[in-house]
Amino acid sequence: MAFFIETLIGGLMAGMLYSLVALGFVLIFKASGVFNFAQGALVLFAALAMARFAEWLPAWFGIESLALANVLAFLITIAIMFVAALLIERLVLRYLVNQEGATLLMATLGIAYFLEGFGQTVFGSDIYKIDVGMPKDPVLILENVFEGGILINKEDFIAAVIAATLVTLLTLFFQKTATGRALRAVADDHQAAQSIGIPLNRIWVIVWCVAGVVALVAGIIWGSKLGVQFSLATVALRALPVVILGGLTSVPGAIIGGLIIGVGEKLSEVYLGPSIGGGIEIWFAYVLALVFLLFRPQGLFGEKIIDRV
User: Fold this and answer.
1) Burial 78-111 (b: 16+ CB within 10 A, else e)
2) Fewer CB within 10 A of the end CB, N or C, for the chain?
3) H-type helices in 124-234, by residue range?
4) 260 in a domain, yes or no?
5) What is the pLDDT of residue 188?
6) Could you tell me if residue 303 is inside a domain?
């Protein structure tokens, strides 16, 4: 039982990180109706900026405190992500209002390649580290309840708590505020939203800013775990099945989908992997997503689109 609970908790913590990345996809889709292939590049770009500024600031200004350097680097990176969101709207999206979804999709691909190349040109292409002080040593809990206790990774636990807090705040913001209602209106019909006075350009700037903050937090967490490198952009691929499972239009769906896939990966690898040679954790999420595409393409919480002719 202790081992099962340990595996379950590990899956839940991994699932929250998947949900955090998936949330960026959902937010952009809800605002523009297009799948944002640039989300992975946003994660890489934000992580590179955070890592390099945390390294540069002490050298430039003689800052001796690591915590202060990280805070300043975090604030500077947020400002950079906001500027990037503004430029994306002003230089790209503003000219694509009311265009076909395929056009917007290609635009996000172009943004992704530009951010990856520009980020590595400015900040470098080596492997960098992000040290925000998260403990990496595991800890035993519930030793009095279960024999041998339950082993928990402190870094994964703190990362999961941060991700859960951010996801909760964003869920409340987009479901309970006027901006959230405007966002849903824009996602349903750009022209109709504009006709009732909703400023489409401002909504896009807001949602790309939020996606940038989400990407920054995800980049810090994954960069702390894996190091900041080019492959960090592929972290977004781990969130694709989460989006398919939860639904492209549902913020709660991103959370539930991430938890289901995180737990499913861990349990299947531990209990089924040894019998078939292992490796289930690599493909489990994609097979599950394929099943949903066949039988429920809108996902668990996505809106079913009905075209009447």
Assistant:
1) bebbeebbeebbeebbeeeeeeeeeebbebbeeb
2) C
3) 154-176, 178-188, 190-195, 200-226
4) yes
5) 66
6) no
3-state secondary structure of 150: strand
In terms of pTM, does the model score above 0.70?
Answer: yes
Supply the range of the domain harboring residue 249. Answer: 2-295
Residue 252's Cβ-count burial label (10 Å; 0-12, 13-18, 19+) is middle
Provide the pLDDT for residue 72: 94
Quick one: pLDDT at residue 249? 76
Domain annotation covers residue 114: yes
What's the structural domain count of the chain?
A: 1
Find where tokens 């401002």 sit: 202
Which residue pairs from 281-289 have beta carbons closer than 8 angstroms and sit at least 24 positions apart in sequence?
285/238, 285/241, 285/242, 285/261, 286/240, 286/241, 288/241, 288/245, 288/260, 288/261, 288/264, 289/240, 289/241, 289/244, 289/245
Confidence band (pLDDT; 50, 70, 90) for 189? low
Three-state secondary-structure class, residue 13: helix
Residues 6+ apart with CB under 8 A from 200: 97, 186, 190, 193, 194
Rounded to an integer, what is the distance from CA 277 to the centroid of its chain?
31
User: For residues 161, 166, 170 and 172, what is the CA-based torsion angle, rounded to 10 degrees?
Assistant: 40
**Cα–Cα distance for residue pair 116/119, rounded to 1 Å:** 5
Residue 79 to residue 86: CA distance in whole angstroms: 11
User: Would residue 171 count as lying in a domain?
Assistant: yes
